[in-house]
Design goal:
The protein is mostly helical. The chain has a single domain, classed as MetI-like fold (Orthogonal Bundle). 67% of the residues lie in helices and 0% in strands. Helix 1 packs across helix 12. The longest helix has 37 residues. 40% of the residues are buried.
């Protein structure tokens, strides 16, 4: 494998860094208030189009709100929900996976049965059902999206523990009288972080898309808070007359998902010695 990082990896890093800056510095970066309605400026095309204005670079929506500002603030929602959901799902999955792999027996069988049960339900259908019952809110959204992905972490963590618990350094730790918690935290977890980090990076794209899907259906982030899924929902009725309302949030969502997926692939190649390492020159 080439020792030079592929241009797509560099581009993905740049996109992710730009998203992080936009999310953290939204009030300073956004040119307009994202929720301020100005009906006199409604449905203005992008600045380069006919009747477009440069103060609205990507145009305005049906309520006269600036599309650029709403995309910038929407990045904050997508990243916060994405990282929080990955933290929830990853933490729960790792804990249950380690318990299943290290303890074994009926506990292992019970946890894996829960994994099989959840995998039998379509993720989006399960999320829609639960949120429809509990009601849409930020906390519910993070919990539902996070809990929908714990099974992946659990299966990987269990497999890693089953492989590591028979290693000599783990046997030596047990022989010295270390309790199971100390053995897991000091010897097993550090040696299984690499594949879990790769999975978390790839899972970020899934959580961001799922959040946008639920917001598109009206079950995620509620108006007037800007979200990419909500912008897509607003723009679907204007695809023929004001295509920019849905097109640019859709492009932002696509580029974000592709960037995290590409970085996940890169992290896998970087941490897997069988695939070789990539280095920046």
């Amino acid at each position: 494998m080439s020792k030079r990082v592929a241009p797509l990896v560099v581009l993905s890093w740049l996109i992710v860094l730009a998203l992080l800056v936009a999310a953290v510095c939204s009030p300073q970066v956004a040119p307009h208030n994202p929720v301020r309605e100005r009906l006199i400026d409604r449905l203005l095309p992008p600045a380069w189009g006919k009747d477009g204005e440069w103060r609205y670079l990507l145009g305005t929506d049906h309520l006269g709100r600036d599309v650029v500002s709403r995309i910038i603030y929407g990045s904050r929602v997508s990243l916060v929900v994405g990282f929080a959901a990955v933290a929830v799902g990853g933490s729960l999955g790792i804990v249950l996976g380690v318990m299943a792999g290290y303890v074994g027996g009926r506990l292992d069988e019970g946890i894996m049965a829960l994994v099989d049960i959840q995998l039998a339900f379509p993720t989006i259908l399960l999320a829609i059902t639960v949120i429809a019952v509990l009601g849409p809110s930020f906390i519910n959204l993070v919990l539902i999206i996070g809990l929908s992905g714990w099974v992946t972490y659990a299966r990987i963590a269990r497999g890693q523990v089953l492989s590591l618990r028979e290693k000599e350094f783990v046997e030596a730790s047990r022989a010295q009288g270390s309790d199971p918690l100390r053995t897991v935290c000091r010897h097993i977890l550090p040696n299984m972080l690499s594949p879990l980090i790769v999975v978390a990076t790839l899972d970020l794209a899934r959580t961001i898309i799922l959040e946008s899907t639920l917001s598109f259906l009206g079950l995620g982030i509620q108006p007037p808070t800007p979200s990419w899924g909500g912008m897509l929902s607003d723009g679907r009725e204007y695809l023929l007359t004001a295509w920019w309302i849905a097109t640019f949030p859709g492009l932002a969502l696509m580029l974000t998902a592709l960037s995290f997926n590409r970085l996940g692939d890169w992290a896998r190649d970087l941490t897997d010695p069988r695939l070789g390492r990539t280095e920046l020159r």
